[in-house]
Design a protein that fits this description.
heterodimer, A: 164 residues, alpha+beta, 4-stranded antiparallel beta sheet, 4 helices, 29% helix, elongated, B: 572 residues, alpha/beta, 6-stranded parallel beta sheet
Chain lengths: 164, 572
Amino acid sequence: MRHIISVLLENESGALSRVAGLFSARGYNIESLTVAPTDDPSLSRMTIVTSGSDEIVEQITKQLNKLVDVIKLLDMTAHPHIEREMALIKVRVGEAADREEVKRLTDIFRGRIIDVTQQTYVIEITGEGSKLDAFLEAVSPFPVLEVVRSGVMGIARGDVALQL
Amino acid sequence: MSETASSSTAITGAEIFCRSLQAEGVDVVFGYPGGAVLHIYDALYRQDKVSHVLVRHEQGAVHAAEGYAKSSDKPGVALVTSGPGATNAITGIADAYMDSVPLVVFTGQVPTSLIGNDAFQEVDTVGITRPCVKHNFLVKDVKDLATTIKKAFYVATTGRPGPVVVDIPKDVTAASCEFEYPESIHMRSYNPTSGGYTGQIDKAVDLILSAKQPMIYTGGGVILGKGSEALTEFTRKLGYPITNTLMGLGGYPSSDKQFLGMLGMHGTYEANMAMHHADVLIAIGARFDDRVTGNIEKFCPHAKIVHVDVDPSSISKNVKVDVPIVGEVEPVLRALIKALDAANAKPDPEALDAWWKQIREWQSQDCLKYDRDSELIKPQYVVQKFWELTQGEAFVTSDVGQHQMWAAQFYGFDKPNRWINSGGLGTMGVGLPFAMGVQFAHPDATVGCITGEASIQMCIQELSTCYQYQLPIKILNLNNRYLGMVRQWQEFFYQGRYAMSYMDALPDFVKLAEAYGHVGMRIDQPGDVEGAIKEALAQKERLVFLDFITDQSENVYPMIPAGAGQNEMILV
């Protein structure tokens, strides 16, 4: 089963490689991993999307907790939560009709066009991974030059909070 | 005035290193100098509280530090230079990681300005060691050095112990700052557990007392967690049978009648059969290693399992358990004893009688029997004689292979910390440097290194260290001219195709020992074994290398073949 694990860890050099190394050394799946410092610059917050049986995910959380740089973690999957991913997509839109159609699709998906040239659009779109997949499918008739996806971020709904 | 005062109290990173080690109560460092650690060596030279042992290869330094730590209640400390110094130390670090040995390994590093430049003797030590350390640090500022060393010792010795690497660039050891060693340390990201939850203790006691066919299975965690006394009290109170893992030997007195011997691949028939038929398994400080469980699908099919371990990730990793208790072994055992005393129920005496009767029947198989009338020296006989002649009081190190299993089977350990071997990583070559570390921790004790002609050659250069420091280690070389365990597997599972397992062109070990300044003896008659060991033990000041020419065809029995269950042993 797919799990989203959010991790608070020391914002220190090497902390990321400890987590990445753990996943490769123990053969755990890693679908995506995003990381950035939090409002407290001494802390990083990481969101890991992984999959495995309950036993494996239990081991993943235990092994993550065992890393000395990891302070706390939360398996979002156990709580009502929101997940978001952002994609930046560059599409070739040479013909006026193409520009019209891509603009329309972007509006439908509540994306934004953030860069325009004679030949190209850059589209910013945010949502769950499935929505991004659907949008990519929708624009696939047009020549997609580049896709950048951020990986998933997650946050629990309500009072549940991953904090110190 | 104040300016002069402050500059006069600033000391160099190298001096901070020495003062920090002194503050940690370190009495000996095993190491090898080199360019990146010259400032540190200079500072070590100019103080006399921390002594330094010069090994002959960095691998030996780390293994010696392990031997020191495993046989004492202090962490081991090693010091090596950058680049090859660090890479040579890796095997020892990985060995310590697998067996949870508290170590602090200091590695020199090229100056911070050169890091990442492929400088001379540069290697990414923090990167290379990351998968085989409990934690590691790169110190980039001399102001962080003392605190980092404090953290390193704290992390290495608390919770589930393990090796910690501190990588120190050369310029950091030259720079100066005020020295203040922190008295205590708090790390928000590191909070090892101690006692177990009361609720779990009560659940465990209910299950333990309900058992009809109980079995206690304990591992190295009991030794590391100083839980032997509590374990002995707990086990005797219950009257239940107990087995130890390879790493757990000595955690319970082997001469006790409740002790069924070691379990696992080369464990006793009775221990493995009792595991297989147990209805309640009490696992303490053990990690359900594959060499213990055999085929995991067939492991303890009838048992409800209580598992006590300080490391939550050990619990339900390989085998799903029913009552997990996360905590240090000693306080948890004390809590269990207290709860047992308070409980109204008692173990079912009739069921227990029947269970013991069954176990005695398994024991009557005499699974460790061997031919005592052989005209060749049987390796088991050598170990048994060494045990008798040292009254089971020696510290025994071993290398890896058949001799290791015979040492585990035939040297009866009644006390913890006496049996020093490489269980997890299975590192050939550890025996001699382990013995050096043990002898430094226990200068007056008898230290025996039970080894084989292949393993001993992997760190043979340490004979030179032994001579320099006059370490009177007794080396028992069970010389069968084969990589014995490899040969045994080839005999059993590869139709006797002995690929590369014959040790040709062996050195003359007697002359070799003599060349290093030691006493060498070759023994090829069973009748001479006892006399030779006596003579070696009488040489209290000398290292004696006993080269026993043993039966080449002897195999380690009993054996659970790979993929088989605990009840599917090959017997003699």
